[in-house]
Amino acid sequence: xxxxxxxxxxxVGAILTFAIDxxxxxxxxxxxxxxxxxxxxxxxxxxxxxxxxxxQVVTTEEPVEYRRVEERRDVAPPL
Length: 79
Description:
Layout: H1 3-19, E1 23-24, E2 27-28, H2 29-54
Helix pairs in contact: 1-2
């Protein structure tokens, strides 16, 4: 789940919990809103952990070989 989806779930959950005062067929929208907000917070935490680990790439290998580059001054440049 990405950051955008997590923020969307938080927003929809907050709207259902705090802005709407209704019950549909025995379904309490306050509880649905709290569940969506919890899923959004969990998604934000998981996304942050995954993206935080991806940026900490450490390479410990040495280069295979070093090459020395020299400029030759005894050759005339092409015409």
